[in-house]
């Protein structure tokens, strides 16, 4: 297909979505990068008809914004997962999207999925991905499902998921990861081709054991944590074997080797470290910090809160705050990253407050809707998958559940001085 087409990319502002949008635009096609921030919401159906009008192809690279794994207190190999949230997202989003495509006369539906989805059905997330795939197969729209292996960009997150103190507990199961650029390139080729009415698997050129892969990453980044090989170590709640995460026969192979990716990306990280070591202004640039935080909260497979719950505070009978993640930043002296889960029952709220003057905060709504006001700005409502930032010293005047009937959850990720223990100071009256 060489003619110019209108292509809608659902999830077009994420890691893969952004790369795919740029790739297809460079090939001369009309691209709509659709996401809740651009007014297109597959969960509610808002903006779908307008975005899909006249589209020949729709590519869905979106991911459940409400899904996370949270390790249970004191239990290295026991995990809790939000199965219902993932299932609700993929089923509701899938039905709305496919119905809108049928009405618009879309001729090709492309969806990004995960290698191993059918083999890992003990996971609620993978059951939800399978439900998404089944909806696509049952629809009348010609389709191609692209199952990808893990991305190089998420190896650091995989390491963090298995971290206990200064050790990283990992399975020796085989994996065949790939660069996100290669994922986007493969998706572009599939998008511009004819529907295959089936699955295309894509993977990297090297099959390697997970513990070895992460060990190479840690050594290259001069991370002092030690990898501990453990066949019982969980991969985001799953026990793996050598078939779990590798493709079957004849996958499409991306050209980038892990070593080459490391050689390209690590110098960039070191340049960032050098810049971070220089004197910085009191208000750090969100353009520099937000992408790193997004990697913690986003990805094809998982949004991970990989630490034992440290503490919980019930503000009242309708709200609770839990410190779910804490880790010293190895490349920024004196700084730590801390994740705080805020849970509101219907009608729940937090008192007006401020945060430490050293804290930059990136907050993402995991489920429900949050009403928020920062400083003297307008009161806004943020829904699942939407985010906002707070700068050092900002005043958070309103933080509340926007619904009187449904619960809501918010993840606030702090970059803050490591010795700062009090993350929130309520207003005094």
Describe the model.
The protein has 429 residues and is of the alpha/beta class. The strands form six sheets. It has a seven-stranded parallel β-sheet, with helices on both faces. Strand 21 and strand 22 form a beta hairpin. The relative contact order is 0.11. Helix 1 packs across helix 6 and helix 5 packs across helix 7.
Provide tags for this entry.
429 residues, 9 helices, 27% helix, seven-stranded parallel sheet, single chain, 29% strand, alpha/beta, six-stranded antiparallel sheet, 26 strands
How would you sum up this structure in a few lines?
The chain has 429 residues and is an alpha/beta fold. It has helices at 15-26, 48-52, 83-104, 124-138, 155-161, 180-192, 210-220, 258-277, 286-297, and strands spanning 6-10, 30-34, 57-60, 69-71, 79-81, 108-114, 143-148, 163-164, 167-170, 174-175, 198-203, 208-209, 226-229, 252-253, 311-316, 319-328, 335-344, 349-350, 353-354, 360-367, 369-374, 380-383, 387-390, 395-401, 408-417, 425-426.
Shape: globular
Number of strands: 26
Rg on CA atoms, Å: 21 Å
Q: Tell me roughly what share of residues is in helical segments.
A: 25-40%
Report, as a whole number of angstroms, the end-to-end distance. 66 Å
Largest sheet: 7 strands, parallel
By DSSP (H or I, 4+ residues per run), the number of helices equals 9
Order of strands, widest sheet = 2-1-3-6-7-11-14
Our estimate of the beta-strand percent is 25-35%
> What is the average per-residue confidence, as pLDDT, rounded to a whole number?
83
What structural category do the secondary elements indicate? alpha/beta
């Amino acid at each position: 297909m060489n003619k110019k087409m209108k292509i809608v990319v659902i999830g077009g502002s994420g890691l893969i979505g952004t790369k795919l949008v740029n790739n297809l635009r460079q090939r001369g096609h009309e691209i709509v990068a659709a996401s809740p921030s651009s007014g297109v919401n597959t969960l509610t159906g808002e903006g779908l008809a307008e975005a899909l009008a006249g589209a020949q192809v729709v590519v869905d690279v979106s991911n459940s914004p409400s899904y996370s794994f949270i390790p249970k207190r004191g239990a290295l190999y026991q995990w809790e997962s939000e199965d219902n949230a993932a299932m609700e997202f993929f089923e509701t989003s899938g039905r709305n999207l496919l119905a809108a495509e049928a009405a618009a006369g879309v001729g090709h539906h492309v969806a990004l999925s995960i290698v191993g989805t059918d083999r890992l059905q003990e996971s609620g997330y993978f059951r939800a991905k399978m439900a998404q795939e089944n909806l696509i197969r049952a629809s009348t729209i010609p389709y191609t499902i692209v199952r990808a292996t893990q991305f190089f960009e998420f190896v650091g997150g995989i390491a963090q998921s298995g971290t206990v103190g200064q050790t990283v507990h990992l399975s020796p199961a085989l994996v065949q990861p790939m660069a996100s650029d290669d994922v986007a390139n493969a998706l572009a080729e599939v998008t511009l081709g004819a529907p295959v009415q089936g699955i295309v698997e894509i993977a990297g050129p090297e099959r390697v054991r997970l513990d070895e892969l992460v060990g190479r990453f840690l050594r290259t980044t001069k991370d002092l944590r030690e990898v501990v090989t453990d066949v019982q170590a969980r991969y985001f709640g799953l026990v793996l074997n050598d078939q779990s995460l590798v493709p079957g026969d004849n996958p499409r192979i991306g050209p980038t080797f892990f070593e080459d990716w490391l050689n390209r990306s690590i110098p960039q990280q070191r340049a960032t470290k050098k810049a971070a070591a220089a004197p910085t202004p009191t208000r750090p640039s969100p353009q520099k910090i937000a992408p790193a935080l997004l990697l913690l909260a986003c990805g094809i497979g998982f949004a991970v809160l990989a630490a034992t719950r440290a503490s919980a505070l019930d503000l009242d009978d309708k709200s609770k705050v839990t410190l779910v993640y804490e880790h010293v930043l190895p490349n920024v002296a004196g700084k730590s990253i801390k994740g705080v889960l805020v849970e509101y029952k219907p009608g729940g709220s937090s008192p007006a407050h401020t945060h430490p003057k050293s804290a930059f905060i990136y907050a993402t709504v995991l489920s429900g809707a949050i009403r928020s006001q920062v400083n003297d700005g307008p009161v806004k409502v943020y829904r699942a998958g939407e985010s906002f930032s707070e700068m050092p010293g900002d005043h958070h005047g309103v933080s509340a559940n926007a619904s009187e009937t449904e619960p809501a959850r918010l993840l606030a990720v702090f970059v803050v001085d490591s010795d700062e223990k009090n993350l929130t100071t309520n207003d005094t009256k």
